[in-house]
Amino acid sequence: MKMIQAMALAILLGGAAAANAEQPLQRTDLLRSDIDVPGHEAVQVRVDFAPGVLAPNHSHPGEEIAFVIEGTLEYQLEGREPVTLKAGQSLFIPSGVVHSAKNVGSGKASELATYIVHKGEALVMPVK
């Protein structure tokens, strides 16, 4: 079931890749746990971007801390100037803020996304 959800999300955010090919945007769920704040949970996800791939505008039902593991990612938060982060740098994204992320480097880019979100809500909410 978890694999089906990950595939559906990859299609939603980045499109499907050909069979046996690397997906352009791949989300891997690492951790999901209740926390001491009632009605909230911590979620940790690894997101891998192929070169040039954009995770289009979306938001989350809580805060996100994005840590770039490898490569170079450009984040665009609604109402702010774009910020470009390299491996080892982090960004705080407030709850509900519409944002996008794009791999602007020549190779693969990866982030570790840690969320503190409302339990039971969709983690990623696409924005048109």
From TrEMBL:
Keywords: Dioxygenase, Oxidoreductase, Signal
Gene3D superfamilies: Jelly Rolls
GO MF, any single term: dioxygenase activity
Keyword check for ATP-binding: no
Pfam families the UniProt entry points to: Cupin_2 (PF07883)
Domain Cupin type-2: 46-110
Cited InterPro entries: Cupin_2 (IPR013096), RmlC-like_jellyroll (IPR014710), RmlC_Cupin_sf (IPR011051)
Name of the protein in its database record: Quercetin dioxygenase-like cupin family protein
Species whose genome carries this gene: Rhizobium aethiopicum
